[in-house]
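Review form for a predicted model. The reviewer records the input and the model, then writes brief findings.
Reviewer: anonymous (R2)
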Amino acid sequence: MTRLDAGDLRFNVERLGEGGRETVVLVHGIATDNLTSYYFTVAPEFAAAGYDVVMYDQRGHGRSARPPHGYGIEDFSGDLALLLDELGVTGPVHLVGNSFGGTVALDYALHHPGRVASVLMVESEPPTDAWARKMSGLLAGSAYQLHDERTLPWIEETYGRHEARLVRWSMRLLHGTSIAEDIAASRIPDEQSWRGLDVPVLAVYGANSDLADMADWLRGLLPRCRTHTVHGHGHSVLVGTPETIGPLLLDWVREGHKELLEAGVPAP
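Model under review:
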């Protein structure tokens, strides 16, 4: 792992297969997530297939810096731009985002379309006003629940030490920063901006997830968007079935995005 300064912050970065034919950037979710969710699932598969794989802990997460403020969606996507500059990645990249990471990836693609070959988001949605309100409420609610001293022992007993350790890390973020307030005040693109996004997008959802119902709406919003549903899984589909998600992501990066890129119309 490498510590890399980007802007005013230091980030924890992992790179596999450096020098590969194309770069795939893996962006993790929020609070209890970090780059290890990719390191132990799909990242080695991409590297073995000859891709340059970049993973990093987002601000406030894992071993990256945790500033007290600055957690709007534009801050997260701005970090991605700075990191790619520091790494010397100049060509268009394939962005893979899990949960909140997919929202960051879409925001980055909207503001840097020439630097993105495709977006593949897993259990994600675009940053909208409704999304900002929902996320802020969820983060504030989680912070409140974690003030209860009985919560951590219950999590460790129910889900194990690893999950409890992730929750301890998230407590530092939720209790020590303004992330809930900053997400609510994020810079939100208007609907017309999304309708002009000229980047191929694949959105993957677990059939049992609350987000699965947005597939039709998303295909109508983004001009080059395809969706895929994984049956028998919910929001944790990435870590729940990497043997399914891995080949799906790899096929998309290899060939799947090209059809939408060339056609310029949404797939049926």
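Findings: The mean pLDDT is 91.
Further findings: The chain has twelve helices and eight strands.
Recommendation: see findings above.
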